[in-house]
Design goal:
By secondary structure, the chain is of the alpha/beta class. It has helices spanning 11-25, 38-50, 67-80, 95-108, and strands at residues 29-35, 55-60, 83-88, 110-117. The chain has a domain at 28-121: Rossmann fold, CATH 3.40.50. It is 39% helix and 19% strand. Strands 3-2-1-4 form a four-stranded parallel β-sheet, sandwiched between helices. α2 (38-50) packs parallel to α3.
């Protein structure tokens, strides 16, 4: 009996995934990460590096890097040959600052992806900034009796 082969319906999705992976791993391309907290941006940068991306520009609102973040940056540069530029997101709110930021990112390679991570703080629960320390939000293991 004649068998017919069916084509996968989501072939274009697979092509897009393959193209995305090639874009991440191509050494000619660079990537931009913009976010509130540097640690969140660094987590995404680490993910990109595990997918063979190595040219990354990070702009975050947090000014001071923690010792742990500095160590993570060092490890990415040293052992994964990552080229990471770190700058303040405050500078990109003006036209000259944005042009300078894009120029710096483009100096690493053609910018192919831009990631934006929550530039505004999340709303506080219960309409208050003052959350008591015994709140389940601060201590997830705490259960009032």
């Amino acid at each position: 009996m004649g068998e017919t082969k069916t084509k996968p319906k989501n072939k274009s999705v697979f092509n897009n995934i393959e193209a995305t992976i090639k874009t991440l791993s191509d050494s000619k391309f660079s990537h931009i990460i913009i976010g509130n907290k540097f640690e969140d941006c660094l987590c995404l940068a680490e993910w990109l590096v595990t997918h063979k991306a190595n040219k990354i520009t990070i702009a975050s609102k947090s000014q001071k890097l923690s010792v742990l973040s500095e160590r993570r940056m060092f490890l990415l540069r040293r052992y994964h040959n990552a080229h990471i530029i770190q700058t303040s997101a405050e500078k990109i709110h003006t036209l000259p600052g944005a042009k300078s930021f894009i120029r710096n990112a483009s100096s690493l390679g053609t910018v192919t992806t831009i990631f934006s991570i929550a530039l505004v703080p999340p709303p506080y629960p219960y309409g208050s900034i003052n959350v008591p320390s015994h709140s389940p939000l601060k201590n997830p293991g705490f259960s009032p009796v």
